[in-house]
Amino acid sequence: MDLTEQINQLEADLVELGSLLEKAERKRVQELLQQEQKKVEKELAVKRQQKEKQDKREADPTAASKAAYTVKITNYAWDQSDKFVKIYLTMKDLHKIPPENVEVSFTERSFSVLVKDLDGKNHQMAMHNIKPNVEANADPSDGLMTMLKKIYSDGDDEMKRTINKAWSESQEKKVRGGGGGEDMMDF
């Protein structure tokens, strides 16, 4: 459903909520309808703003790229299993931009993410040589260690604190006899 259709649906919802509110007799029901009406009004305002931005971009598609500059994404997290690695990016107001402003590309050993025109900036993250060719007898944790070291060296202060905290907790568990496996890494 495109933005125009979403806006039309929200406007129809507001009209129906208004007529239900007029018919409602009980105070609690009226309050619930008013709350829902406010939610729909906010959502409608966001959609209208998105539509306005989309119309401006369509009128001058080069304007967004001229105004924006690119910053590096350094705050992220990941999760991995034997077969998959998940990268988590948390960005304020990401839900307010259209999906076509987010570009993701993958290769066998790299990925990149580009978020266009978020708060007047482009945000980019790229990881290369993620998983080097693994020999049959190689330790699978070596690839993880390499990736952790790269993330630590490229990360901001908050990322370094997070990794250091995880490493310290792992060392404490080992000292207390709680396992923890091999050393996480030596920074």
TrEMBL record:
Q: Where is the composition biased (Gly residues)?
A: 177-187
Query: Could you mention a single GO BP entry for this protein?
Result: heart development
- Listed Basic and acidic residues bias regions: 40-60
Q: What is its main location?
A: cytoplasm
A single MF term (Gene Ontology):
S100 protein binding
Q: Which GO terms describe its cellular component?
A: cytoplasm; nucleus
Q: Matching SUPFAM superfamilies, A to Z? A: Calcyclin-binding protein-like (SSF140106), HSP20-like chaperones (SSF49764)
Location of the region described as Disordered in the Swiss-Prot/TrEMBL record = 40-64, 167-187
Name the Pfam families for this protein: CS, Siah-Interact_N
Keyword vocabulary terms for this entry:
Acetylation, Cytoplasm, Nucleus, Phosphoprotein, Ubl conjugation pathway
Q: Which residues form the SGS domain?
A: 112-187
Name its cellular compartments. Answer: Cytoplasm; Nucleus
Instruction: Give the protein's biological function.
Output: May be involved in calcium-dependent ubiquitination and subsequent proteasomal degradation of target proteins. Probably serves as a molecular bridge in ubiquitin E3 complexes. Participates in the ubiquitin-mediated degradation of beta-catenin (CTNNB1).
Q: Output this protein's name.
A: Calcyclin-binding protein
Organism in which the protein naturally occurs: Pogonophryne albipinna
